[in-house]
Amino acid sequence: DGGITQSPKYLFRKEGQNVTLSCEQNLNHDAMYWYRQDPGQGLRLIYYSQIVNDFQKGDIAEGYSVSREKKESFPLTVTSAQKNPTAFYLCATSSSAGSSYEQYFGPGTRLTVT
Amino acid sequence: AQSVAQPEDQVNVAEGNPLTVKCTYSVSGNPYLFWYVQYPNRGLQFLLKYITGDNLVKGSYGFEAEFNKSQTSFHLKKPSALVSDSALYFCAVSPLTGTASKLTFGTGTRLQVTL
Fold it and tell me: Which of B27, B46, B88, B102 to mutate to test the interface with A (most CBs of A within 10 A)?
């Protein structure tokens, strides 16, 4: 899990509430990503950011929002508009330097909404 | 659009036997291919990648993968399985764009190694 911190590890919320998941990295990587993992569906990309103050929607951005005010931080907000928010959320980073195209993942946050 | 298929939900192998976890892909242009492993309630760990060069790629923990362009496959292999290899394995593909590698993952294959 290296230099990527996700907090908290477990998060419980009531339906209708917004919730923000934290992702911090000390790897000095330019790009950061948010994925959602559901059983049997692999990982699906929610949002990604290549540089500070810029981000792009992934495949399943509806009901989510992000910000990238600092290189080290890429918080994800799960809004009440997300129909099925209960899932395991993974943050990842990658470096643009050299040929290091692989992504490095944080330990994840398991969100349960009831 | 890019896609990855992992045709087996689960692979069972006895300790000491060779293992193969299958992956096929579809992407425009040259593929960048990756294998990751996930242990329960943990993030994904990078195992190995193919960017260019030799078709046989060696990675962490004794794993290797063979890139086959004609069959659009990137199967993960290990000559001798260990019980500790039991985990969820993901194949991923990316057509590198800009500075971000936008990965598309397969649905994962659970590897079960038994004594």
Answer: B102
